[in-house]
Design goal:
Helices cover 22% and strands 34% of the residues. The protein is built from four helices and nine strands. Strands 3-4-5-8-7-6 form a six-stranded antiparallel β-barrel. Helix 3 packs antiparallel against helix 4. The protein starts with 5 loop residues before the first strand and ends in an 11-residue tail after the last strand. The N terminus is likely disordered.
């Protein structure tokens, strides 16, 4: 059965262009389950309904991923003047399966998307591709993958609380 997108229906909810939002941000939280749930901020790049991540091949993240590749990746933004009277934010929550990239074409795609999102000329990270291909099994490149696209499993919202109302004094 195909998962449906999760939408927050609220009178003050405004939907965002999540493709543009994900391309405009640089860091999100990778959330992994297990006996001890774990969330870690990571730089990412995004294109064509795919989130690309780079991670070292050892450590707590890899221990969690070796037991369960299901993941949640959260990207959010809050304005500098966020406060109790101005509670506005944007967030995209993507759920999917982490897939380790070891194929040259997929690694090259991940690198090119990263270069573009970081505003770098294509080819800037060619040395990274070549060094990775010396031992592709230990590549640090990953993507969040799902039978449906990341887009179909994203919760998309921009939420605004109503401005506080002044109540007349009771005499």
């Amino acid at each position: 059965t195909k998962k449906k997108s999760a939408f927050l229906f609220h009178p003050f909810c405004l939907f965002i262009d999540f493709d543009a939002f994900l391309k405009s941000q640089r860091v999100g939280l990778l959330c992994l389950g297990g006996d001890k749930p774990y969330a870690v901020p990571l730089a990412y790049s995004y294109d064509a309904n795919t989130l690309y991540l780079t991670m070292r091949p050892t450590g707590r993240k890899m221990d969690s991923i070796s037991r369960n590749r299901n993941a949640c990746f959260v990207v959010y933004w809050m304005p500098p003047d966020f406060s109790m009277t101005k509670m506005t934010w944007k967030s995209v929550i993507c759920e999917g399966m982490l897939e380790h990239l070891t194929d040259r074409a997929e690694i090259t795609t991940a690198v090119r998307v990263g270069e573009q999102q970081m505003g770098m000329p294509a080819g800037s990270w060619d040395r990274l591709i070549e060094s990775t291909m010396q031992n592709p099994a230990s590549s640090g490149f990953w993507k969040i993958n799902n039978d449906q696209s990341v887009v179909n499993t994203c919760e998309k919202r921009m939420f605004r609380h109503p401005q506080p109302q002044k109540h007349p004094r009771v005499k």
